[in-house]
Amino acid sequence: MIRRLRERVSLPLLGWLVVLWLLLWGDLSWANVVSGTLLGLLVTVVLPLPAVSFGVRLRPVRIVLLLGRFLLDLVAASAQVAWLAVRPGPQPRNSVVRVPLHSGSDLFVTMTAELVSLVPGSVIVEIGAPSALGGQGSLYLHALGVDSEAGRQRTRRTVLLTERRVMRTFATSRAYDEYLERCRADGSDSLCAGSRP
After folding, report:
1. Of 13, 39, 59, 155, which is most buried by a Cβ count within 10 Å?
2. Radius of gyration in angstroms for the set of CA atoms belonging to the chain, rounded to a whole number
3. How far is the CA of 155 from the CAs of 39, 85, 100, 181, 189, in angstroms?
4. What would the pLDDT profile of 20-41 be if each residue is shown by its tens digit?
5. Rounded alpha-carbon distances, angstroms, from residue 8 to 22, 41, 80, 150
6. Which secondary-structure segment (H or E) carries 123?
7. Residue 176's CB: how many other CB atoms inside 10 A?
8. Each residue's pLDDT tens digit, 89-137
9. Nearest C-alpha neighbor of 141 from the set 119, 122, 158
């Protein structure tokens, strides 16, 4: 019985539920900690979540490089958007650009979408999840100041390079190999290729 209970209760989830309980009460006391723990145990035993395998491998050096590149993109895009806002002349034309992704994982598509949408000048309009589309995810994004096919290609290239950085930072070797296969299948291997993670 105790072994089954140990398998059903996730300690990180239980800890998070206790923290939420304390935040809801706004008071750190023994009574709130004990009641939050008991309530968290009840929730995790009565309403268990299915086990999820993320297939993620953390690479600290690559995480630092990914964040550094994100900050560079953030500064450059902020300057471009600021210039578009104050420059004289007509308002810039915009485009909605579809970018087919190759990661094959809802998690990696979400990470890519988050990094792309946090950079000024682009807003994610729709996410096509790989789990719903047979493994081929996609992003539709509204790109500011993009009104030509060359601009749309630059936008696609930027998103695909962001996806590659996400895959090289977080993907397991197997997930990265599958990602490279999908890139080769649609002819995007020049943007996907790079040293193995």
Report:
1. 155
2. 22
3. 48, 20, 12, 22, 17
4. 999 998 888 999 999 999 998 8
5. 23, 10, 50, 53
6. strand 122-128
7. 20
8. 888 889 999 999 998 888 899 999 999 999 999 999 999 888 776 678 8
9. 122
For residues 96 and 144, give the distance between their C-alpha atoms in angstroms, rounded to a whole number. 9
Q: 100 has which bridge partners?
A: 138
Q: What is the C-alpha separation between 196 and 170, in angstroms, rounded?
A: 12
C-alpha to C-alpha distances, 176 to 67, 78, 179, nearest whole angstrom: 20, 31, 5
Whether the model clears a pTM of 0.90, i.e. scores above it, the answer is no
- Residue 127 pairs in a beta bridge with 139
- Burial grade of 113 (CB within 10 A; 0-12, 13-18, 19 or more): buried
Residue type (1 letter), 151:
G
Residue 61 has pLDDT above 80, yes or no: yes
Q: Which of 148, 146, 141, 151 shows the shortest CA–CA distance to 96?
A: 141
What's the CA gap between 163 and 167, in Å, rounded? 6
Q: Which residues of 126-154 are buried (b: 16+ CB within 10 A; e: fewer)?
A: ebbebeeeeebbbbebebbebeeeebbee
